[in-house]
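Take a look at the protein record below with the fold in mind.
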Amino acid sequence: MNGEESRGGTGEGELDPVRRAAFAQELMRALAAHCPGSRAELRGSLAQGTADAYSDIDLAWTVPGDRFDACLALVREVLEAVRPLDSLRTDPESRNSRERRLVFAAFRGLPLFWRVDLEIAASPAARGEGHFAAHGDDWSPYASALANAVAATKAVLRGQPQNAQGLLERGLRRAGAPDGPSGRWFDDICRLAETAAVREPGLSPLADRVLRLAGSHLVQLLWWTFPTGLREQVDELVLAGRDIQAVHAMRESGIEPRPDLRMCMDVLTGRHRALADRMPSPPRHDVDTLAAAAGALPRDPVAVEAVWDGDTRGWIVVLTAVLARPWESVALADFRIGAAGTGEAARTGRELAERLGVPFRFAGPDQPDEDAPRWWDARH
């Protein structure tokens, strides 16, 4: 679901790194412009060039010590001028520091994964007692629990189930949930979000975003719910072209509730994408080889016909040699239909028919139809 706008316009699925980089630059320009003599820069994975699509935005804003309080007072206003905020919270551990404060900002219309962690540092250290707090929402254990839910989702998607387990344990504990993680990632993340919203109703809009986030990644969360041995088995079956067996293995895995057929098919599609660089290359069908195969048939073909077929992965066009007396169709090659459509199958079929000196027929090149009339039907 990556690249798709989630329901409600929250952008949970739109994980375009270019968009994130542009937004980070816009934030840095706004911060630096607000306070002459200050410096805003990237930190963390974005600065190191190791970020992935799920990475958040770590920023450091270094301000003159005598402007520290003023910058803290207006940080919400500065950030809001770039994009409306959903929440702005101050890290309680740095809440009274005269040297640094850490604030966490979630912006409307941006993925929850792209939280902005902004460190505001005074250089030199600000004078006076540390009593002035950044203008943000009050910190609460339930807001922290929701942050754990987002971080756990990110960890699962990155293939880090042990990290996700720890994040969920802490989040469920903070939210006061009676039970710990069950290992069913989607269910646990949703339970954590719902519990936090019950404990602090004002967090319901944020909890709803977390629920939508989990829903937009349901297929990946289900995949990582499967035991390691099953995931390895499914990938082996996919690489061997045994899609039906892979789906059966997922459905009979013992996971409760039992995953339905449609969900398993979605997981299968995801595994095909993930394993694309390891999948066997599709056979190249040269006309010489196909003509030799047709010449070895017990009777000379009277036509070359393209017909539709399909399997769990999608539509296939099969090139067949049509034999007469009695009518018979012998498959010579198949073409899985992807972005290029039926062009290669039709082109190869026409070249083969010309080589054999027989007609070529493709009853429905623009629309899959397994029940289209065959060559012999059209002859009567």
